Amino acid sequence: MTYALTKIRIPSFRSGLIERADLERRLGEALLTRRLILLVAPAGFGKTAALSRQLSLLPPECISAWVAADEQDDLPRFLTCLFDALEPYDPPWRVAPESLAEQACVPGALGQAVGELADALAAMTVDHGVIVFDDMHTIPDPRIFEFLRKLLELAPLNWTLAISSRTPPPLPLARLRARRELAEFGQADLRFTPQETRLLLRESGQADSDGMVERVLGRTDGWIAGLCLVLDAAGRSVESAAELRLSQRHLSEYLASEVFGRLSQPWQLFLMRCSVLPELSADRCAKVSGNPRAAEMLEEIERRGLFVSVLDADELMLRLHDLFRAFLEEQLLRQRPDEVPQLLRLAAEDEADTARKLGYLLRASAWREAEDMLVAVTPSMLAQGDGVKVASLLRQFPEGPRAESPRLAYVRGLLAFGELSPELLAVMREAAVKFEREGDLCMARRALALSAYGGALQSFHVNVAEILAALEGAPPDLETDAARLAARYWGALVSGPSAVAEDCLRRLVSLLEDSGTPALWFRFLPYIYGNYVTPAFPDLARRIVAGALAAAGDGHVPLQLLARSNEGWLLLWQGHVAESRALALQLEADEKWAGRPRHARVGSWILMVAQAMVQGDREAVRVVLSDKSYFKNLPRLEPITRGLAASVVEDWAAVRQALEDLSGMEMHGSYWAPFPRLLEAKLALHEHRVDEGLGLLRECVKTSQDIDRFGFDAMARGALALAELRAGRPQAAWAAMEPLVERSRSTGLMCGVLMCGPRDVAELARSRWGAEVSEEARAEMRRWVALSLHAQESGKPGMPEPALPDSKVLTAREMEVMERIAAGDSNKLIARALDLSPHTVKRHVARILDRLDLSSRGEAAAWFHERAER
Q: What is the pairing mode between strands 280-281 and 317-320?
């Protein structure tokens, strides 16, 4: 969990809460008619009580959501709370709400995230909705108010935002006032009136004469907390208490003498120790206070209404009023300062809220425990796409520990790894040096191994070789071993031969299957598009896809998407082009649903590039290559893929530009190192520099089988064979083609043949080969042509995708979900009935609305009933 569920539960209060007819009438009317409600007053003026009570009085056709802000809230945490608070009403999301909180933090993307939320609110079938943001004075992240400003602009007219705060929020209030869209309730509106004070005195069993009402109000100025303090101490006469002047300034003295001072020593100790907890439950209070009677004491606190609100939970859970909690914390620091660090550590032990847990440890100056906690949660959070939240947790550490700690350097390295940032090697080497200095050799080796893998991915192979040599003979460690294998595997892909790469891949897959952790799969998942295509490849690829999907389950969407991308490549290598294309289109929709940034979609994007090459469609190539945002931290990928795709559709100006761009890049040790020579050869042949082109291609083919990747061997052999045929040398052409044809026949794998493009595939098949070419070989090349033609047909505009249902037809599972929607079931009920995760149900609902061009669950239900009546 990234936050405590109590943050989105509407607090309730003990019986006997005084009805405030005038305030309730005005507040209730405003909640139904105004765009923004603002309650601004100091602590103790009943802002939370007024709002929570008024929500309970809203008409039945209205819905409400509650978010209690706190000092740990940054933008992603705040938005996660908001989206979860709305979840019981099943908003028809078009983008996964889990991802919107992350997406909103991308520079320039906040407006898009707000737009998605506004669209979901507009599509909900409700008469009126209210969203309350309580305690907004605690917010430390200014981006939250920028979010609210945009939401106020875009939210549907039937939705109201209500904010309670001790200070005015930085929002465009003047404009809202001018439009009469703002209702404000300040200290004067919230203080108790004489009549309300009379009712409070009467409810408390005190004298309610005009004189007493006047005296109490005179002493408290209608400050609700002060009035409650006056009436709190059991058995005490209000006559004497009313003589005190109660205000914020006198609060601490009064609490000390008239409330806290009247409690027995065990009660004082219990309350002081428990004040470190934001919410009080029996188990946590017993643990922190050391008092086994915690459950009884909480019941007594609730019965007496000792400055608490009751939270909606399965067990009794209380929240101390901020004023009382602050007083108790002050007393704890004054009377028992030595206990505070241990109390904070105890509070942290079973805290499910990650930000709060870290906050406890940092307040206790428990730097090592805080660092260990962050190291422990980071891999799983990254596997769930929560990199922004990890970065936010990292920023909570003071500058000193952040600069000195090897563990925090390691976390920075994991973040850089997820981005393939150039600073990865330096940060991980820094972490390794610091770990070694501390004597933690296991973590030092792990950091070094990860730097080796990152270096292999980024083609810093001199460093990789040195690091791997230094790690020889290291004791077994799962993550270190996985990183070493992954680095060796990627290095073998670059340098060959294929047998070494295949051996490393097999060992890596076995290790990942044995580990079973989503975090490890996510970090070291092999990309099928980069692999050599050998006879053992299909089985290994299927194991990679199945293992990754099993590890991901329903909770690790980024890993699911990577696995599906690999599945699309396996289909392509097997010649199932239309099915691969259909999966790629679905993957594109799923990645959009998951809110993945462009640079995180490289596997699916390269799959789309390959399919555009297979189709030989110039416009498809142009569209796929037009978005440069996929190339973050992968500088060689863009010109190589642009050049290869351009050569297939014969856009020679683009090929020349790609080669010019590559000329200034270091290609030694790069995965893409062989490809510039292939592009130079094809360009030379186009420009009638035949001898030069043939010479370059012959050089390529000498090693193309040993360093085959991304269809390199097929593209080089196909280009050479065509050049030899055009030069009138069919025997030389067949010498180039025969290994490719035989491999295709024996394995059934296309091995990149179709990426030569439909024109070249067709020319190879219809050429006049010599007698030495068997009929079986000719049949194999004709099979290539048939697959190429089928791929071209499936890619034409308006042609249905065979593996996807028609846009107006739903799958069997989607029809089951649709039937439940029509019956009025919530997402939670649908998930339970169909044994699905709530996330999967939300995705099904989004697909249903997209395919049927509907905007809401109500329209979906109407569609189903109309269809059932026919």
A: antiparallel
Summarised one tens digit per residue, pLDDT across range 238-290 is 455 445 455 555 667 767 776 787 788 999 999 999 999 988 999 999 999 99
Question: What was the pLDDT predicted at 805?
Answer: 36
What spatial distance separates the first Cα and last Cα of the chain, rounded to whole Å? 46
220 CB burial (10 A radius; 0-12, 13-18, 19+) = buried
Structure tokens at 293: 């009677």
* Burial (Cβ within 10 Å: 0-12, 13-18, ≥19) of residue 675: buried
3-state secondary structure of 91: coil
> Do 831 and 755 sit in the same domain of this protein?
no
Q: Say which residues have a Cβ less than 8 Å from residue 41's Cβ, sequence separation at least 6.
A: 47, 166, 185, 186, 187, 190
Shortest CA distance to 203 belongs to which of 10, 11, 14, 12?
14
Domain tally for the chain? 5
Which pair of structure tokens corresponds to residue 334?
A: 């004054």
Share of the chain above pLDDT 70, in %: 92
The CA-based angle 39-43-46, given to 5 degrees, is: 55
32: domain CATH number?
A: 3.40.50.300
SS3 630: helix
Identify whether 106 is part of a domain: yes
- pLDDT, tens digit (0-9, with 9 covering 90-100), for 793-813: 765 544 444 443 333 568 888
Residue for token digits 């909180």?
101
101 compared with 807, residue with greater pLDDT: 101
Alpha carbon distance 609, 617 (integer Å): 11
Domain of residue 212: give its range. 192-351
Which residue, 36, 19, 17, is CA-closest to 181?
Answer: 36
Q: Is residue 360 part of a domain?
A: no
Higher pLDDT, 213 or 378: 378
